[in-house]
Amino acid sequence: MLPYGRQSVDDDDIAAVTAALRGDFLTTGPTVGAFEAALTAHLGGTGCVAVTSGTAALHTAYAAVGVRPGDEVITTPITFAATAATAALHGATIVFADVEDGTANLDAAAVDAAVTTRTRAITAVDYAGHPAEYEALTKVARRADATLIGDAAHSIGSVYRGVPVGALADVTTLSFFPTKNLTTGEGGAVAATDPAVLGRARRFANQGMVRDREHLRAPDEGGWHQEVHSFGLNYRLPDVLCALGLSQLRRLGQFKTARARLVARYNEMLAGVPGLGLPVQRAWTDPMWHLYPVRIADGRRREVYDRMRAAGIGVQVNYLPVHLHPVFADLGYRRGMCPAAERFYDEQLSLPLFTDLTDADQERAVEALRAVLG
After folding, report:
1. How far is CA 74 from the centre of its chain?
2. pLDDT value at residue 9
3. According to its UniProt record, which residues of this chain constitute the active site (predicted)?
4. Over the chain, what HEC string results?
5. Has 180 been annotated as catalytic?
6. Of 15, 169, 231, 296, which is least surrounded by CB within 10 A?
7. Using alpha carbons only, how large is the chain's radius of gyration in Å?
8. Does the structure show a pLDDT above 90 at 213?
9. Given the residues 59, 90, 180, 202, the one annotated as active site
10. pTM of the full predicted structure?
C-alpha cells in the first residue's frame, strides 16, 4: 500500500540519535535547548518550548494564555479533534466558526460574527500547510481582546505575506508526528511572542515546577528545593527525540522544495480532470504543503476512496468536522452549524504526499484516480 504520508529519515538523523543515546542525557539535557534555539530561528525569532506532541502543545498553549471554565474558544471544525478538545479540557466552551470554501481555513468574517464578551482565544489552523488569513484574524482578535493562536501542526516552513509561520499569531503550536513536515517521532512545540506567556508554557509543560531562586517562596530552603506554584503536566520532550528534530530541521528547506515540486506535478497532471477540485493557494502565501487535498464532486468521495484503497493507493480523509464527533454531538453540536466545512468534508480526499514520494508512485496514484473518475 502506498501511504498518504511517511517520514524521511536519513543516516544523519540516525547518527544524531545514536550520539544522543551515547551521551549523558536521554532527557532534559542540552539537546533540548539546542533544538528549541534552532526552532526559534526557523520561526522568525519567536521563542519556543519543545513538548511531547502537537496535542500537548495545544493543551499547554491554552494553559499559558489562561483559558478556564466560562471562557469561549473560537476555532475551525476542519482540523484534528485535539485543536478543540484540549481547550474543552480546560473547561472552555468551544465555538465553531465556518471555513473559507477555497482553502478550508478559518473564515475571519465567521469568527467576527461569533465573538462575544467571553471569547478568550481564537485558534486558526493552517490546513494542509496553507497559512490561515492571519492579517484579518489578527484584527478580529484585537477587537475582541482575545489571544490569537495558530495551530501550525501542518505548516512549519510556510510563509504568509513574507512572514514565517511562528511569527504570525500570538501563540503558535507545532506537531512533529512522523507524517508531518519534519519529525521527532512524537513531539511538538509551543511558540509565543510574549515572554511571559512562553514562561507559563514552559512551566506548565514541566509539571508547574519552579526552580529559579528568585521565584521561590522559600528561597533559603536549600539547594535541592523546588516548588509547584500552579498545576502542570510532564510534557517534556527528551534529548534523544530533540536530537532527531535538530537533524531534521537542517533539511527543512529540502523537504519544502521536494513537497512543492510534487504539488506542482500533481497540479499539472490533474488539471482539468472532470469532477475533481484541486487545492487552492492564495497569491500572498508560500505554503509548505503537508497534504494534497482534492475535492471529489457529485457525491463520489466514498466510492473513490474505496476504489483507490483497493488499488493500493493510501488516500485519506482529513478530517471529520470536529463538531460532528460524538463527544461534541453529545454536547448539542449539530450538522448544519458549519455548512462550508461540512461540504468540504463530504468531498475531501488527500492523495499521497511525502518528501520521498517517487515520481513513479505519484504517477501511479494519478493514473488510478483518473481511472476511477472515468
Report:
1. 16
2. 97
3. 180 (proton acceptor)
4. CECCCCCCCCHHHHHHHHHHHHCCCCCCCHHHHHHHHHHHHHCCCCCEEEECCHHHHHHHHHHHCCCCCCCEEEECCCCCCHHHHHHHCCCCEEEECCECCCCCCECHHHHHHHCCCCEEEEEEECHHHCCCCHHHHHHHHHHHCCEEEEECCCCCCCEECCEECCCCCCEEEEECCCCCCCCCCCCEEEEECCHHHHHHHHHHCECCEECCHHHCCCCCCCCCCCEECCCCCECECCHHHHHHHHHHHCCHHHHHHHHHHHHHHHHHHHCCCCCEECCCCCCCEECCCCCEEEEECCCCHHHHHHHHHHCCECCECCCCCHHHCHHHHCCCCCCCCCHHHHHHHHHEEEECCCCCCCHHHHHHHHHHHHHHHC
5. yes
6. 231
7. 21
8. no
9. 180
10. 0.97
Burial class (CB in 10 A: 0-12, 13-18, 19+), 117: exposed
Span 322-361, pLDDT tens digits: 999 999 999 999 999 999 999 999 999 999 999 999 999 9
Q: Which three cell numbers stand for residue 195?
A: 515572554
Residue 266: the pLDDT is: 98
Q: Could you read off the pLDDT of 155-168 as tens digits, one per residue? A: 999 999 999 999 99
Tell me what pLDDT residue 73 has: 99
Cβ atoms 174, 153 nearer than 8 A = yes
